[in-house]
Amino acid sequence: MAKYLVPGPRQLNSRVGGHRRESAAMERHHDPVRPIVGGLVLGLVLLLAVGPVRPEAAQPVDLALVMAVDVSESVDDDEYVLQHEGIARAFESPLLAAALSAGRTGAIEVAVLEWSDRDKQVVTVDWSRVGDAASAAAFARKVRASQRSSDGLTAIGDALRAARRLLDAAPAPADRRLIDLSGDGIANIGPPVREVRDELVAAGITINGLAILASEPWLEGYYDEYVIGGPGAFLLRAESFASFATAMQNKLLSEISGLPPSTTMLAQSGRADRAYHFMFSPSPLAGEEGWGVARAAHQESRNTYSHPASSKLRQHPPP
Known about the structure:
alpha/beta; 11 helices; 17% strand; globular
């Protein structure tokens, strides 16, 4: 007859307790949440000890440049292409790459702002760092790829303020801040240009001008009196949109180097040019409104007066 040992109460308690301890140990071993919580706690401790990770600061540049390009209704499609091609060709020039390398940091940051009416200022090429021939060529490709943003009236004062806001948002600190404004007509809407110009100059911004004399040959005088300003400011003029590329390259070389334009850019105007300027420039007492009268007089006389081809540079001395 088989014999069976029946465990007593003490033995049963011992076995049950042992199973419970084994089950608890297995649960702790296979708990999937515990490693995650532990990792989060450890990461938080390390973050508090090291501090937040900050993005690397942008490297400084020699110049922050906004190229403010007139796309008002007086600029037709062909003239628009000539302007953009002129900017692109200037950045592809070996002379520009050489001027970049001669700077303190060897680089500039540049953006293109198209402007026309009061509410029409559009950044068509955003801030780009240009420090060698390759990055200059890449910027030229961006310019060529951009599309015309608007047409409308000519709000130079609003364009200058938009350019200032763009400079204030530049990604890198710059030794110099500059607006390069090109256009083919006087302001016919918006805030007084001279007041805005003075605001920007007081903020340490230099404004250079490129007056395109395709439709208003006396525009140089208006730009000189109302638009350009600041330390070392200067004005170049292009007799037509076809000569825009050469004028733009000369202008950029001077702006990047920080040196005055060379005397080779300056051709003395003839007597007829001075007579024309005298005939159709308003009195200094007339203010900006007087230039509208001058424009009307010019339109009436275009069929009877031939303005000679010339190239002139006006420069404001450095401080």
